[in-house]
Amino acid sequence: MANTVSFLASSSSFTNKSPNSRIYCQNYPLASKIIVKNLPFSASESRLLKEFSKYGQIAEVRLVKDEVRQKSKGFAFIQYTSQEAALLALESMDYQLFDERQVFVELAKPRKSDFGGYPRTSGPLKNKAWQF
């Protein structure tokens, strides 16, 4: 596939610059992205990369920042290349200290825009009459 994106843990670039993030998200398993909460405001992407790359190959580290002040909001998303690495990081780092602060790690929920909308259920469609 021509649109695949691959970042090694030693790469100096941590984010996907592709305009089509839908293709980007489909390159990795659904449960391979984690969210790290309660980070110290001094945390950096490079520090997160260093600590969390112990558990597997990282595709992306995104530290969420305030748009105006460009200061950390205290949480980050880390995309691994495999589900196993993400689950290992979750099990190993949840409730652990990161720069003298206890962090909480969970699997990240996919955004609606990542997959073109939330999955549909198998129930009846609205505005469609039942025929027997």
Description:
The structure is a single chain. With 132 residues, the protein is of the alpha+beta class. 19% of the residues lie in helices and 23% in strands. It has 3 helices and 6 strands; from the N terminus they run αβαββαβββ. The strands form 2 sheets. Strands 2-3-1-6 form a 4-stranded antiparallel sheet, with helices on one face. A two-stranded antiparallel ribbon has the order 4-5. Strand 2 (58-65) and strand 3 form a beta hairpin. The protein is globular, with a radius of gyration of 18 Å. Mean pLDDT is 76; it is low at 1-25.
Strands, helices and their partners?
Blueprint (H helix, E strand, L loop, with lengths): L20 H6 L6 E5 L7 H8 L5 E8 L6 E9 L2 H11 L3 E2 L2 E2 L1 E4 L25
Antiparallel strand pairs: 1-3, 1-6, 2-3, 4-5
Quick overview of this protein structure:
This protein is of the alpha+beta class and 132 residues long. It has helices at residues 21-26, 45-52, 83-93; strands at residues 33-37, 58-65, 72-80, 97-98, 101-102, 104-107.
Range of helix content: 10-25%
* Strand order in space, largest sheet: 2-3-1-6
- Characterize the quaternary organization of these chains: single chain
Low-pLDDT runs of 5+ residues are 1-25
Give the number of DSSP strands.
Answer: 6
Largest sheet: 4 strands, antiparallel
> If you average the pLDDT, what whole number results?
76
The number of distinct helices, counting runs of at least 4 residues, comes to: 3
Which geometry do the CA atoms define?
globular
Beta-strand proportion: 15-25%
What is the first-to-last residue Cα distance? 45 Å
Integer-rounded radius of gyration: 18 Å
